[in-house]
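In the previous lecture we treated proteins in isolation. Real proteins rarely work alone, and many bind small molecules. This record shows how such a complex is specified: first the sequence, then the SMILES for flavin mononucleotide.
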Amino acid sequence: MTTVSDAIRTRTSVRVFNDKQVAKEVIQEILELAGNSASNSNIEARKVYVLSGEPLKAMVAEITTGLYSGEDPDTPEYPAYPPKLQEPYRSRRYACGEKMYAALEIPREDKSKRIQQVMKNYSFFGAPVGIIISMPANMLEGQVIDIGIYLQSLMLLANERGLATCAQASWAQCPNRVRAALGIADDERIMVGLALGYAQQEQAVNRLDHPRADLSDYVSLRGF
Ligand SMILES: Cc1cc2nc3c(=O)[nH]c(=O)nc-3n(C[C@H](O)[C@H](O)[C@H](O)COP(=O)(O)O)c2cc1C
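The predicted 3D structure, ligand included, written as tokens:
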């Protein structure tokens, strides 16, 4: 039996999926359990769009066509990072990207291949299930924490069932397109997406094993 510790230890982001479909019962079970996630005052300020099959294909087709056309440029829902990422975050971000592109054998100079890789975000990296999570537009930072907790629940529950995931802030880069493709009104903010499916285990990009900071870098243990 997978423990929470196992699920946390073994979860990694997967960016190449195989064709195996995810059974509706499994999705349903993950969603039911993730619904137990904590939220401040239990307000559960979220909407979750779970797409597969034709609706997934149609959404991906509409959004990628729009992005490639370059028409109607979108405004990101929120900046992915602060404009000037300071150290040590800047270096960590750089190392994270370089590790991924090295595994994909895409050199820094090959801008076109790098862009193609970024664009794979907008097909959920070929995953059979794509999830978009929104929250009411008037919600604040407190509710963003709740969304993050919910997202982690989905990822761990998926992992426990042998499924792989990749959280995707990329979807928040084109919120108008997402809203249009899914028929969502302007009163919902597109916060994050999640690719969900079965991993192609042998792919180097699915085994990046990013290092983590030492606890001493960010934990302050007092009174122990
Ligand atoms: C909120 C959030 C948003 C993310 N957005 C993206 C994304 O848009 N595209 C992507 O390829 N990875 C995305 N990631 C995955 C991170 O890059 C990944 O979690 C990080 O590199 C650590 O690797 P690991 O998940 O394998 O441990 C996101 C992760 C989180 C938590």
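Summary for your notes: Strands lie at 47-52, 129-136, 164-168, 188-197. The chain has one domain: 4-80+122-209.
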